[in-house]
């Protein structure tokens, strides 16, 4: 069913006057509410013959959430109903021009207007995120922000809203490229995701460029380079904090950033007395990281010396680990096990050689080449770990003992992890570079052992040939 101008809805209560816009979730219409005698906005969702129930779910969620909200910078809910296979959501019509329309006529906002927008958006987000559970808009962008005639701003279109946090994941990816926070590409929407979208919208209206076309440093938008001296340092710091790619390091709220902006006035980049500058903090962090790396290197060197001493001691006592009894498989079980290991080797090779590089290449188109470069070492390490596991399994089913020193290496790796965990409590990620060396060392021993066995097996045949 098409909704034409002058068409009456809800038993003649609403008379459509014109179309306001069309989005992914439905059409927005202007209508006259004959009962209240004022203009309203009506969002229409086609539910009859819908190809997916996800769109119907989002429409019902938008109506439910909007009915629960009351804020001067949000459209007020008035009514919702079903008619002729469509769902209609009636809300207050906010007068003004969308920032998207301003963007299309190449208008930009000045510093004071951007600060006003940030202040109004801060009030809206504090209200939404302070509810239990938090309400997350998920799609703040210029098209969904209205600038009223008095210069204030309102946020509209809750078609992508989420009012339930799902710790287990599984959320649909909803949002607009350029304004979506990186975590939304993983299906994770957090209150900080809306902060990112507000920052991207502000920067777009300051520069006149879409966020994806602005200068980047890794995954982060380079705000200072994008503005090129057109904004005061305080505003640059505020927008940079809002556009931090890592949600755990991103500003959780806009209000504290505005307080710093008001206090500093943006007139100087000098740090306030008694507070270290951001540059000092970064320098201290780099020095700490350097000292940590040197400590790890010294620890690895000590471990190497210990391994060499143990090896020499074993040689001196004539210790021979290979003499220990080691039973493998025979006959059909051996053939089945080797077949399974061959299939596993092919699957690992396809995954790490084709599937993962392809996915990383596609993701790098969105997040930049840095993502692929940073992920490459992890992919290579995963390949080495898989290769080592497959070789160990092959030796086990054939009845061959593990190389000398394998157990000591595993114990040493476990000890390293425990020591680093004690030295850096609270860290969620521990990377042991010494483990990479242990992997390479054992792979080399396995290859050397395989060559030795191949040479030993070929000697009788060459002798018989003579």
Automatic annotation (TrEMBL):
Keyword Kinase belongs to the record: yes
Biased composition (Low complexity): 405-416, 453-466
Feature: compositional bias, Basic and acidic residues: 269-322, 417-433
Segments traversing the membrane: 346-371
Catalytic activity, reaction form: L-seryl-[protein] + ATP = O-phospho-L-seryl-[protein] + ADP + H(+); L-threonyl-[protein] + ATP = O-phospho-L-threonyl-[protein] + ADP + H(+)
Biased composition (Acidic residues): 434-447
Chain intervals for the UniProt region annotation (Disordered): 264-326, 394-466
Keywords: ATP-binding, Kinase, Membrane, Nucleotide-binding, Serine/threonine-protein kinase, Transferase, Transmembrane, Transmembrane helix
Stored CDD domains: STKc_PknB_like (cd14014)
Segments forming domain Protein kinase: 14-261
Enzyme Commission code(s) on record: 2.7.11.1
GO molecular function, one term: protein serine/threonine kinase activity
Alphabetized Pfam families for the sequence: Pkinase (PF00069)
Keyword Transferase: yes
PANTHER family associated with the record: SERINE/THREONINE PROTEIN KINASE, SERINE_THREONINE KINASE LIKE DOMAIN CONTAINING 1
Name used for this protein in its record: non-specific serine/threonine protein kinase
């Amino acid at each position: 069913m098409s909704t034409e101008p002058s068409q009456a809805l809800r038993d003649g209560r609403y008379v459509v006057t014109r179309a306001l816009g069309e989005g992914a979730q439905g059409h927005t219409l202007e209508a006259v509410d004959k009962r209240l005698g004022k203009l309203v906005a009506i969002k229409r969702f086609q539910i009859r013959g819908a190809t997916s129930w996800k769109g119907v779910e989002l429409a019902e969620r938008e109506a439910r959430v909007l009915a629960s909200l009351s804020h001067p910078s949000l459209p007020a809910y008035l009514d919702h109903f079903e008619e002729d296979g469509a769902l209609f959501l009636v809300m207050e019509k906010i007068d003004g021009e969308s920032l998207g329309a301003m963007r299309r006529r190449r208008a930009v906002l000045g510093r004071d207007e951007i600060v006003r927008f940030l202040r109004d958006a801060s009030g809206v987000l504090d209200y939404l995120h302070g509810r239990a559970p938090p309400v997350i808009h998920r799609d703040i962008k210029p098209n969904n922000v209205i600038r009223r005639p008095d210069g204030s701003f309102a946020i509209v279109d809750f078609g992508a809203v989420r009012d339930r946090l799902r710790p287990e994941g599984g959320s649909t990816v909803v949002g607009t490229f350029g304004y979506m926070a990186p975590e939304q590409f993983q299906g994770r929407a957090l209150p900080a995701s809306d902060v990112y979208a507000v920052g991207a919208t502000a920067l777009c209206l300051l520069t006149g460029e879409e966020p994806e076309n602005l200068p980047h440093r890794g995954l982060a938008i380079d705000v200072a380079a994008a503005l090129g001296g057109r904004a005061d340092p305080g505003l640059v710091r505020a927008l940079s904090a809002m556009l931090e790619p890592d949600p755990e390091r991103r500003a959780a709220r806009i209000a504290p950033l505005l307080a710093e902006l008001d206090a500093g006035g943006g007139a100087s980049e000098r740090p306030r007395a008694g507070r270290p500058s951001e540059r000092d903090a970064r320098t201290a962090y780099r020095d700490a990281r350097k000292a940590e790396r040197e400590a790890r290197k010294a620890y690895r060197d000590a471990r190497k010396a210990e391994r060499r001493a143990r090896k020499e001691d074993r040689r001196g006592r004539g210790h021979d680990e290979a003499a220990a009894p080691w039973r493998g498989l025979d006959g059909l079980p051996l053939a089945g096990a080797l077949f399974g290991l061959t299939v596993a080797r092919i699957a690992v090779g396809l995954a790490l050689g084709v599937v993962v590089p392809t996915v990383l290449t596609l993701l790098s188109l969105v997040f930049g080449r840095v993502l692929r470069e940073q992920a490459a070492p992890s992919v290579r390490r995963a390949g080495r770990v898989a290769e080592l596991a497959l070789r160990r399994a092959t030796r086990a089913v054939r009845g061959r003992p593990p190389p000398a020193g394998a157990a000591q290496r595993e114990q040493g790796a476990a000890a390293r992890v425990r020591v680093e965990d004690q030295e850096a409590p609270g860290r969620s990620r521990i990377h042991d570079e010494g483990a990479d060396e242990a992997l390479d060392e054992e792979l080399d021993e396995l290859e050397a052992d395989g060559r030795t066995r191949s040479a030993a097996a070929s000697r009788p045949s060459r002798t018989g040939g003579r």
